[in-house]
Amino acid sequence: MAHRKTSKRSKARTTLRLADLEQSKNAVLHSLGAASSQESYGHAIDEFIGWYCSEPRLAFNRTVVLRYRFFLEQKNLASSTINVRLAAVRRLAYEASDTGLLSPDLAAGIRRVKGAKRLGVRIGNWLTVDQSKTLLGEPPSGSLRGKRDCAILALLNWMWPATGRTGWTQNGRFPDPRGTLGDR
Predict the structure, then answer these.
(1) Residue ranges covered by each domain of the chain
(2) How far is the C-alpha of 73 from the C-alpha of 59, rounded, in Å?
(3) CB 140 within 8 A of CB 146
(4) 4, 18, 41, 158: most buried, per Cβ within 10 A?
(5) Calpha distance 72→50 (Å, rounded)
(6) How high does pLDDT run on average in the chain?
(7) Rounded mean pLDDT, 16-29
């Protein structure tokens, strides 16, 4: 009589428990390099886990992720916000599949969930590259518009010094909102 070998490897499941989701979440967050990405994905995954565990689900599959997308759309979130959150859920499915918690077929189905469509167009008067170079390259004149432009650029330079970029500067200095001239 032949003896059957039993595999010690567990079969991939379709329903994930909270512990499984947390394990996959930690794997996703450790695979990201930027702290801002970790924070954004962590928030998105936490929200998905809260939604997923709020009602009994049969499986973590494409249909459930489509329902989650519909849930996000009902909250009137921007399409870019929805797409970032769906990207985090797709990444969660990849990690669950890689660790054997989710079948590769289900992860592939989740991957095929389309993001929210971006509707609308940008409105307003947008500067061309040459116009923006002109604006940032020339010191404003003594006119009212020139003073306004100088104040706006000084405010931008004051608010975002960590970018390492400066807009308009005159002799390497620009007006400080506190009334003094500062070298930043």
Answers:
(1) 18-111, 129-182
(2) 21
(3) yes
(4) 41
(5) 13
(6) 76
(7) 82
Q: Are the beta carbons of 116 and 141 closer than 8 angstroms?
A: no
Other beta carbons within 10 angstroms of residue 180's beta carbon come to 8
Q: What is the pLDDT of residue 88?
A: 92
| Axis crossing angle, helix 35-54 with helix 62-74, rounded to the nearest 10 | 100
Following DSSP, what letter does each residue of 102-141 receive, concatenated? B-HHHHHHHHT-------S---S-PPPHHHHHHHHHSPP-
pLDDT digits (tens, 9 = 90+) for 129-173: 777 777 667 666 678 887 887 778 777 766 655 555 444 444 444
pLDDT at 184 > cutoff 50: no
Identify the CA nearest to 115 among candidates 150, 57, 66, 162.
Answer: 66
Residue carrying the six token digits 């306004």: 148
For residue 75, the model assigns a pLDDT of 92
Q: Which CATH entry fits the domain spanning 18-111: 3.90.1300.10, 3.90.850.10, 1.10.150.130, 1.10.20.10?
A: 1.10.150.130
